[in-house]
Amino acid sequence: MTDAQHTRPLVAGLLLAAGGGRRLGGRPKALLPHRGRPLVEHAVRALREGGCEVVHVVLGASAELVRERAVLPGCVLVDNPDWAEGMGSSLRVGLGSLAAEALPVDAALVSLVDQPGIGAPAMTRVRSAYRSRDSLAAASYDGRRGHPVLFGADRWAAVAGGAVGDQGARDYLKAHRDAITLVDCSDVAEPYDIDTEADLAHLE
Which of 27, 117, 152, 153 is an S-S bond match for 21, by CB 3.0 to 4.6 Å? Predict the structure, then answer.
């Protein structure tokens, strides 16, 4: 692809869906049922409808079962053998997978599988905050930073370098808070997580 052809920035979706649901009795979060389908399918749909034509999904807990049960056409499914180390390892694996994409990806829009209250409208808003390969943007809810988060490709190496344990990119985002474009999504999304048995009440 020539520079002339590559005029529209390619913002790819990166879904972190490797969690084992330790506080949910060991049920992989990707396969939790929501509206009759696995949660991972809803999360992928939100990214696609939010404008991400390319979507990479990082799998970990029960990865083979997720591949069997979830219908994820066109997605690149990436296994993270070290998923139990926490979200940081999945973020590293996912960014590495995007870096190896055949098409030059300009930014990653990162979302989490266990946040079904964050749908396509929030994805669209944060994706629209892309300005350059140095872009850094995140959804905010009542003034608090949340997901999705957009990382321009020029930032990936540094983000991956600091992604350890269950922190993901938290330390990187704290260190670069002045560079973050916060995109208010309070009116279109709810940023709850499905972490405990009580949280399952959010699922339909």
Answer: 27
